[in-house]
Write the structure tokens for this entry.
Amino acid sequence: MAVRVLFLGPLRDLAGVPQAEYPAPLDWETLLAAVPPAVAEQLREPPVHVACAGMVLADKADLAARDDDEVALLPPVSGG
């Protein structure tokens, strides 16, 4: 039983992998403890969003991923 976490954009570089699997269930504090420290630091920043099962969470602390869910870590979008 696992949750797949996708590291997108610069978070992928910080994680060193495009995705990882962590034991389910996965909440916000468990996610922060599971990912590499540099990623956890970025996740605490307001512009980084978290999506779970295809839905962007209004509050990252509400993360409640279950077995087979996919969590996407969404860095701020840049461009012009």
Summary: The CA atoms of residues 1 and 19 lie 16 Å apart. Strands lie at 2-7, 19-23, 26-27, 49-52, 55-56, 64-65, 70-74. The mean pLDDT is 95. The two ends are 41 Å apart (CA to CA).
